[in-house]
Amino acid sequence: MAELSQLLQQTMRRRHLNAEDLADRTGIRTPRIRVFAADGAHGPVRPTPEELSELAEALALPLRDVQEAARTAAPAPA
Question: Residue 47 has what DSSP assignment?
């Protein structure tokens, strides 16, 4: 399973969305979306369960996949 940052980046790219577009669809502030896309769920800013639900709905992804991605640990840098 992909980590949240990977899932967001891939899905946003596939749907031709940027952080501002996703913010408009969800109501989540653009800087928070940028942090989630860069650092995933384990960075300095962590998504709330409500935000995960909003992201899943806006990106037409199953909520369970988004929740699992948020729990997946990011790979350690080399």
Answer: -
Domain ranges of the chain: 4-71
Angstrom CA distances, 32 to 1, 20, 25, 76, 78, stand at 22, 10, 14, 22, 26
Structure tokens at 19: 């952080």
Residue 53's identity, in one-letter code, is S
Question: Which amino acid, one-letter code, is at 37?
Answer: A
The domain made up of 4-71 is a member of CATH 1.10.260.40: yes
Instruction: Report, as an integer, the average pLDDT of 59-72.
Output: 94
Residue 32's H or E segment, with its range, is helix 30-39
Q: What confidence tens digit (pLDDT) does each residue in 21-56 have?
A: 999 999 999 999 999 999 999 888 999 999 999 999
Tokens matching residue 7? 């899932």
